Amino acid sequence: MTEGIEASDLLRFVEGDCSPDEAAAIQAWIAADPRRGELLDELRAVWRLTGSSTRPWVVAGARIRLLPSRGRHAAQRSAGVSARPRSLTFGRAGHGPARIAAAIVCIVAGTVIWRVRPRAAPAREYATSPGQRLQLTLPDSSQVLLSVGTRLRVPRDFGVRARAVELDGEAYFVVRHDPRRPFLVRTRQGVTEDLGTSFDVRAYPQERFVQVVVAAGRVALRAGRGGDSVLSLRSRDRGVIDARGVLRATSGVSVGDYLAWTRGTLVFRDAPLGDVVAQLGPWYDVDIEVSGASRTDERLTISFATGSVDEALATLARVLNARWTRSGRIVRLTPLQRRQ
Amino acid sequence: MLDSHVRSPTLQRRAPPGTPPSWESAFQAHYVELCEYVLRFVGSAEAAQDLVQDLFLRLWASRGPRDATRLTRPYLYVAARNRALKYLRHRRVVTAWIARAACEETPPSDTPEDLCLRGELDDAVQQAIAELPARCRAIFVLRRREQLSYREIATRLSVSLGTVKSQMWRATLRLRTRLAPYLARPVIPEDRAS
C-alpha cells in the first residue's frame, strides 16, 4: 500500500490535494517511520509561515451548497447577509465539476448589476452596491475582485490593442502581464499601469485620493490623465496620489492589511474612528452616526471578520465603550462616559 | 505570508460577550479555519470540506436553545475533531496515524496583536524567499501567493509539470532550513484560552 510514496508526496498531502485513498496510503507511510512525521511537522510549519491557508477554500461554494438544505426559513432569517456575494476564492478556482459549478453559482448569486449596453455603446460596466463584492475574470484572463460600492468600466475593445479599464471605488487586480498590451487602470486622479503584477487600486470619489498597493510584481502610477509625473512601485509598496495630484510612495507596508478586504475582513491599525466608520458603512451597507463629534479623531486598532453587521457593531461599541442602536440601515453610536 | 493577503481568513474576532452567535456568523467566522484543522487529520481537502459542511448542516438541523454554546469556536473545534477521528477510524486508517492525529491541538485564534507579531516574522520569511534560486522562487511564489495550480504554473513558465513539482519541493526544503529557528514553536504565544 505504501509503495511508491516519496517524501515529496508529503507536499500534496499538506496541501490536501490527495484523494481520500491516497491520503490514507500516505498516512500509513508517515506512521511507519517517526522521521517522516517530523518532516511532515516541519513542512506544515513552513506552510504556516508562508501563508495562512494551505489552499484556497471555496467558502462561497460551501455556503451555497448548504443553503438549499437549510430551506426557506433559513433564507428569511439570514436575508441581508446571505444575499451578498462572498467570492472569497481568488486565484485558482480549483478543479472538478463541483467547484466549477459552485463558482458559476457564486457569480449568479452575486446579484450583479451588469448592464450590457446596446451595441454602439463603448463599455461594459460592472458595479457593486454597498455590502456587495464581485469577482470577475476579464477576457485576457486577468482577475478582478471589486470591493463594495465600486464601478468598473471595461471597454468593448478591451484587449484588442490596449487593456484599459476605468475604476471608481476599490478593486484588487491579478493581471497577466503582456508587454505588447499594457494593462491600465484609469481613475479620476491618475493611471495605474501594470508591469506584471497583483495590486490593489482604491479610488473612491468621496475620498479624494488614489491609493495603489502592490502585492507582487511592479506597477507604474501616473498622476493626472496625461501623466507627467510617474511613480514606480514594487511589491509591498504603497503609492498615493493626493487631492492636489501629488505622488507619494511608502515601501514595506503590510500588504495583508490593505488586502484583508479581499478575504472578507476589514483591518484597521491605529486608524481614526472617522475612517473606520466611513469604511464600515458601505461594507455592511449601513449609515453610522457617532454622537460626540470630537471622538472621530480617536485612533483604533480593530478588525472585522464577521458577515454580521450587528456583531461588527457590537465589537466596535465595546472597543469604544459606546452604546449602539440600529434601526434598519441607520446606526447610532453613543459613547458612554469617558474612559478612565 | 509573502505579502500575506492569503493570511486574513484565519483572522477571527471572537463574538463579543452578550451577542448570541448565529449559524450564519459562526459559518462565516469559522468555516475556513475548521477546514484547515480537519485537513490536518484527513490529508484530503475533499474529505475535509465534506466533514465540515456536514457538521454545519447538522448544527442547522438541530438548532435551538443550545446554540449559544454549540456555535462557539471551542465547541466547533471539538465537534470537528470528533468527526475527523471518527472518519479516520471508519476508513480504517492505520492506528498509529489516528494516535498522532488525536494529539492535534486547537490553534489559538488570532487577534490584532498576533497580526503585528506575524508582521515582524514577515521580514524573515520574505528574506528567506528572496534568497531562493530564481526559478525556485518564481514557482514557489506563484503557488503560495497566487495559488495557481501546478499545471497553471507549468503553462505560465513554459516548463514541465515535473519541473514545477520538483522545484516546489526544493523550495520547501530550502525554506525549512532557512527558517529552522522559527519552525519549532507556533509563532503565536499561547497564553489565550480558546
- The helix/strand class of chain A is alpha+beta
CATH architecture of the largest domain in chain A: Sandwich
What is the string of SSEs of chain A from the N terminus onward?
A: HHHHHEEEEEEEEEEEEHEHEEHEE
Helix content of chain A: 25-40%
Overall pLDDT level of chain A: 77
Strand content of chain A: 25-35%
Compute the separation of the termini of chain A in Å: 66 Å
Mean pLDDT of chain B: 79
**Structural class based on helices, strands and sheet pairing of chain B:** mainly alpha
The major sheet of chain B is characterized as: none
Radius of gyration over C-alpha positions of chain B, nearest whole angstrom? 19 Å
What does this protein structure show overall?
The complex is a heterodimer of chains A (about 350) and B (about 190). With about 350 residues, chain A is of the alpha+beta class. Chain A has three domains: about 10-50, no CATH class; about 110-260, Jelly Rolls (Sandwich), CATH 2.60.120.1440; about 265-335, 3-Layer(bab) Sandwich (Phage tail protein beta-alpha-beta fold), CATH 3.55.50. Chain A contains eight helices and 17 strands. In chain A, the strands form three sheets. In chain A, strands 1, 2, 3, 4, 5, 6, 7, 8, 9, 10, 11 and 12 form a twelve-stranded mixed β-sheet that branches. In chain A, strand 3 (about 135) and strand 4 form a beta hairpin. In chain A, helix 4 (about 60-75) packs across helix 5 (about 95-110). The radius of gyration of chain A is 23 Å and the shape is globular. Chain B has about 190 residues and is mostly helical. Chain B has two domains: about 10-100, no CATH class; about 110-185, Winged helix-like DNA-binding domain superfamily/Winged helix DNA-binding domain (Arc Repressor Mutant, subunit A), CATH 1.10.10. Helices cover about 65% and strands about 0% of the residues of chain B. In chain B, helix 7 (about 135-145) packs across helix 9. Mean pLDDT of chain B is about 80; it is low at about 1-20 and about 185-194. Chains A and B meet through helix 1, helix 2, helix 3, helix 4 and helix 6 of A and helix 1, helix 2, helix 5, helix 6 and helix 9 of B.
